[in-house]
Every structure is written in C-alpha cells, then in structure tokens.
Specification:
The chain is of the alpha+beta class. It has nine helices and ten strands. The strands form two sheets. A six-stranded antiparallel sheet has the order 5-6-3-2-8-7.
Length: 320
C-alpha cells in the first residue's frame, strides 16, 4: 500500500517543485540581445523603455498552444495512468481522481490559452545570429541590442496586483518539458487523492493550496515551453503579466504598427533600473554600411545618454 500523503508533505513537495522550476531561470548570461529594426531601436532609446508585445502577435504561431499540447499529452499519457494505478489501488477512487484532475487541467489550460494576456520581450544569448538578422533585422540589417541581463527583471514577481516584469529561460527540449510536467502532475494527483481521503464528498477546489501551486506551474510553463524548431535562438524572455487576479487589466496596453498590422504592446518598467535602460552594446547587421552606421549610432547614443555603449558590426558573411 502506498504511503499516505499529508497536507504538510504535499506542501513540502510543492515548494520543492517551485524551487526546481525557479532554479532553471536564475543563472542568466551576463548580456542578452534583443533583435530589432531601426524603428524599434529609436523607440527604446527615445523613451528609455523596453516594449513587450502581446503573445498573440508574436512570430511563432504556436506560442502557448504548443505548451498546452505538451501538458495535455502528459496528463492523458501512459505514465500518468501508471502513477494513478500505483498510488490509488481502488479502481473507483482512481477513476474519480483521474477524471477530476484531467477535467480541471483542461479547464485551466483552456482559460490560459483563450483568455490570459501577457506580454513578451524576447532576447537571445547570441548577439550575432544569422537567422535573427534574416527574421528580425530588416533582411540582414537591423540591430542586436545587448542588455545587462540581471537588470531586465525579477525571477518571480512580488506584487500580485501589479506584477513586475520577470525574466524566464525558454525550454525547448520536449523530454525536459514532459519530465517537469509529469512531476507536477504526480503532485496534483496526490493532492486530489488526499482531498478525497479527507472528505469523501470533496470536489476540486481551484483555490486551495494544492491547485494554486499547480495553477502557478501551468502559467509558468505555458509562457516558457516552445517548439524545438526554435532552439537555435536560445531565447530568454521578459514577461509582463497583463491579467490581474480578479480578471481585469494589471497593466494598460498601447498599440503600434507592425509588419503584420496593428500590434498591442506595453512599455516595461524594469525594477531598480532608474531613468536609463541597462544597455551595454549594439551590434548592427551585416548589410549596413559601417561608416554611416557607426557614426549615426554614436550620435544617437550620446544624444540619449548612452555614451558608454559599445558599437560593433556583425561578423556574419551575409549579403542580404
């Protein structure tokens, strides 16, 4: 017979999983690069703000939906069935727990996919990447703007009503995505079984401690799991939560023109930065004229108070 769970042991397991997840995002590279065009660069230096785009307007059409599929596949998979059989020998109880857990996860995931509003500013570890010059840098031009990563946001926000920007590492490996999800799934299975053992009439309470832990994990993973086809980017992202706990707006958005029409975005208030961005380097694209570009960037940086920014040219052999 499996050892019975208690509220204390399950809360300890939730805290352990929380620490494991947070640890994935703590060790940032010293510099992270944001690829942009001339309009984006001018906007940042003129306003001294980073812009984060609503996740629905990003270039990856599977943003959020890919992560949702990973989570639901694990939820309905063979390893979940095996764990249920191991932890809950009673067939009727096992079915009840399985049905409750799966239905609640589907409901929460669907709500995030369809209703959650969050905003992303995307960064790469590599500041001279050919795929980025092609995709984001105006067909070989453009700029990779390097920021001191420790100043781009918190590991986890502290203010629930007005969440601060946080920095998270994108996870591309499907095996890692599945392994982490399975750990959290085992946790919520044990939690819901414990609730039934404590009260035979227990229903899922999405606001109890166990489900709040799991809901938190879903919100994190849906924003950080990405298709492995994008792994070359080695992306980190600054995430601004846009939905307050009661369902209203946590931050007011703005709108700009983009390559595909009108785009919703927010200006980020980076905690502890002051009135200047933590900007250290600008690398300009391989098709831009070095003489003109060096001069114009030097004048721009001096004029906007970024005199110490290093300016370099891409080393990628690309003709555009």
């Amino acid at each position: 017979m499996p050892k019975a769970s208690t509220a204390d042991t399950l809360q300890a397991e939730g805290m352990k999983l929380f620490r494991e997840w947070t640890h994935l995002h703590v060790k940032r590279p010293r510099i992270l690069y944001h690829y942009t065009d001339a309009t984006g660069l001018l906007g940042m230096l003129k306003t001294h703000r980073l812009w984060a785009t609503n996740r629905r307007f990003l270039n990856d059409p599977t943003e959020t939906s890919y992560a949702a599929e990973v989570i639901l596949e694990v939820t309905d998979g063979k390893q979940a069935e095996s764990y249920l059989a191991k932890r809950i020998p009673n067939g009727l109880r096992r079915k009840r727990v399985a049905d409750q857990v799966r239905a609640t996860i589907r409901e929460i995931v669907s709500a995030y996919v369809n209703q959650d509003e969050h905003y992303l500013a995307c960064f790469c570890e590599n500041g001279d990447l050919l795929s980025q010059w092609r995709g984001y840098g105006s067909v070989g031009g453009g700029y990779a703007v390097g920021f001191v990563a420790e100043h781009l946001g918190l590991v986890q926000y502290q203010n629930v009503q007005k969440p601060e920007p946080i920095v998270q590492k994108v996870i591309y490996d499907p095996a890692v995505q599945q392994r982490i999800t399975l750990k959290w799934l085992k946790f919520i299975i044990d939690w819901q079984n414990f609730c039934l053992e404590s009260n035979e009439r227990a229903k899922v309470d999405a606001l109890d401690k166990g489900w709040l832990w799991f809901n938190w994990y879903l919100s994190q993973s849906l924003r950080c799991y990405k298709h492995p086809a994008y792994a070359e980017e080695a992306e980190w992202r600054v995430i601004q939560v846009g939905t307050a706990p009661e369902g209203g707006r946590a931050i007011q958005p703005n709108f700009r023109s983009g390559r595909r029409g009108i785009v919703e975005y927010v200006e980020l208030n980076l905690p502890g930065v002051g009135d200047r961005l933590p900007l250290e380097i600008i690398c300009y694209g391989p098709t831009l004229d070095p003489t003109i570009t060096d001069r114009s960037l030097s004048l721009l940086c001096r004029g906007k108070g970024y005199e110490n920014v290093s300016i370099t040219k891409s080393q990628v052999p690309f003709a555009g």
